[in-house]
Structures are given as C-alpha cells and as structure tokens.
Amino acid sequence: MRRRFRSATAATAVAALASLTACTPQAPLVDDPFNKIIETATGTMPLPPEARYEPADSRPARLPGDVVPEPTPAPGIGPAQDRIPEIVERGRIIIGVDQSLNLLGFRDATTGELAGFEVALAQEIARDIFGDPDAVEFRYVDSTERIDALRTGRVDAIVRTMSVTPDRESSVDFSAPYLTARAGILVPAAEQDSGPAGDGDGGDDAAPISTAEDLNGRRVCVAADSTPEEIVRSEAPGAELLLVRSWSDCLVALQQHQADAVVSDDTILAGINDQDPATTIVRRGLSTENYAVGVAQDNAGLASQVNLTMERIRSDGTWQQLYDTWLGAFLPGGQQPSAPYREAER
C-alpha cells in the first residue's frame, strides 16, 4: 500500500507541475541573447538604422529656390603639378563616393569593385592628373558627411550626387556640373493597379499615386537633409515622412511596406528601379538640380583641374558614353550640362 500511495502522490505532483508549466512562462535554460529578441518580437520588420517617421508639416519647407550657379574656375592649362602639387606628389587623388547608389556609385556584387557613373567620372579625373584612371583612392562618404569630409581634408573631392545650392556654395567650391537630376516619385508597380495596401493613412482603397498631391496621407521615404525632403514638406504637407540615412534604405522600406512611395532625384530612382523591376517611376520634374564635384573652399586649383576633365569628356564623347552605359536605358536623352567659367586662379 505504501508503494501505491507513493506512486499516486508522485503522479499527482507531476500532473500539478505540468499544469503549472502550461500556465507559467518558463525561464530559458541558458542565457541566450536571442531569447529577448524572440520574446519582444511583434511581427513587424524594424526600420532601417537611424530611420524615423515625422509629419511633413512638422516644420516649414526650406527649398533652395531658383539656383544660379556661381562661376567656376576655367579649365586648367599646362601640367597638373602647377595647380595641385600636393596631390601630384602624393601619387593619387582621394575622392569621396557612395557605395550603395546603384548605377551611380555602388559595389558590384560580381566583382567586388566600385562601379557606376560617378565612380567612372572620378577615374577620368585621375586619368587627366596621372595618366592612370586607377590612381584614385575611393572613400565612402555619407550624404550628411560630404561638406565635413572636405573641410577636414579627409577627401580631396566629392563625387556623390552633390547638388549645387546656395547654402553649399557658401561652404565648398564646385566644379562645372556633370549631371542634371530631376526629382520624381517611385512606387510599387502593382499598387498602381490595385491601390496601396497596408495600414498607412492612405487606406486600402486609396487612389494610385501619380502627383505630388497624391502623397498626402501616405508614408514617403526620403533621405534626411535632402532636397527631396524639402519638396515633400512643401508639396505634400499631409504626408508622413520616413527619414533615412541613405537612399538604399528607401528601397528596403518600400519592399517591407514601411513606405508607400520614394521621392528622390530621377538618377537615384533609376538605380532603385533597376534593382527592383517591381517598382515604377510615376513622375519626374518636381525639381531640377545639377550635380557637381565638390572641393574644399578656396581650392581653385583643384576645381580648375576637374573642369579640365569636364571639358575633355565633353569634347571626346566620353561623357555621353558613360551616360549611355549607366543611365541611358532608364533616362534616355541625357546631355552634359554647361556652366559659366571664370578665370582660373594661379
């Protein structure tokens, strides 16, 4: 009897323990760092690093207005040693670029090398200084770091979608422009037919996006501190901005349904469209800007040297070849912009 009593008691204890286990969360057997991630998961994808939502009307727009570029030094004449002796003596030029802007400056997954229109332009600048397009050291520069990188001497020049604005002209010097960009809108192609899905303010039955006004009530991804951010604040104050560090983050946000549209320069949107053919550019011409090579303020010698390259690639057809190779299929009809020159300082 005692043995049977013990068995019954043990069975009762096991049953009670099983019931308690079913009702009470159990502590992990080991201190696994993934336990906390699993416990706090909500089922939604995290935003890109440092990204945040902000109402477009949270502050007034700061648009640059009509920009008349300041005259830039005339193309150099004679040896580069006369204009940029420190760079020539170093044996290479250091240029800040992006490594995630498809078609402009990106790391080719098949070769591991940097490629794109802006990377090729930087190599042409090196070619005219050293006779060698590979005599260039590339350094990745975030869009918010460009001016500081020039001020501190981290780079000699910036070739990274740097548009000419009055504010920037007060801080850096620019070469002649090398590319004209027109801001536009990119959206998922499927949602143009069925209306945007998800839990955005636009709702499931919202009309397709085709104009800036259609962005009101939608989540719009833009790079922080960019002209497209100011365009959305001005043209669609009812939009919800998703402010990110880089334009590649906007593609991820669009694919994860964290944004309904991307507003950026058409040159950048072309790269996103190339990466994801399920997207489409529905509008261009929200603004027009020129990209130029940025150099440190009062460095007329380097600006003059870069402008020598600008005129050489214009006259020998190199610019058109680079454009057709990287951007022509998406933005046909591109032409190299011109710029007023002033006398180069010796």
Please characterize this protein's 3D structure.
The protein is of the alpha/beta class and 346 residues long. It folds into 2 domains: 49-64 and 183-192 and 211-287, 3-Layer(aba) Sandwich (D-Maltodextrin-Binding Protein, domain 2), CATH 3.40.190.10; 80-181 and 290-328, 3-Layer(aba) Sandwich (D-Maltodextrin-Binding Protein, domain 2). 34% of the residues lie in helices and 22% in strands. The chain contains 12 helices and 14 strands. The strands form 3 sheets. It has a 9-stranded mixed sheet, sandwiched between helices. A 3-stranded antiparallel sheet has the order 4-5-6. Strand 10 (219-223), helix 8 (227-235) and strand 11 form a beta-alpha-beta unit. Helix 4 (117-130) crosses helix 11. The termini are far apart. The relative contact order is 0.18. The model is unreliable at 1-25, 33-43 and 196-204 (pLDDT under 50). Belongs to the bacterial solute-binding protein 3 family. Residues 1-27 form the signal peptide. Residues 190-210 are annotated as: Disordered.
Indicate the low-confidence ranges by residue numbers: 1-25, 33-43, 196-204
Number of helices: 12
Tally of individual domains: 2
* CATH 2nd-level architecture of the largest domain: 3-Layer(aba) Sandwich
CATH topology of the largest domain: D-Maltodextrin-Binding Protein, domain 2
Main β sheet profile: 9 strands, mixed
Average pLDDT level = 85
* Fraction in helix: 25-40%
Number of strands: 14
Order of helices and strands: HHEEHEEEEHEHEHEHEHEHEHEHHE
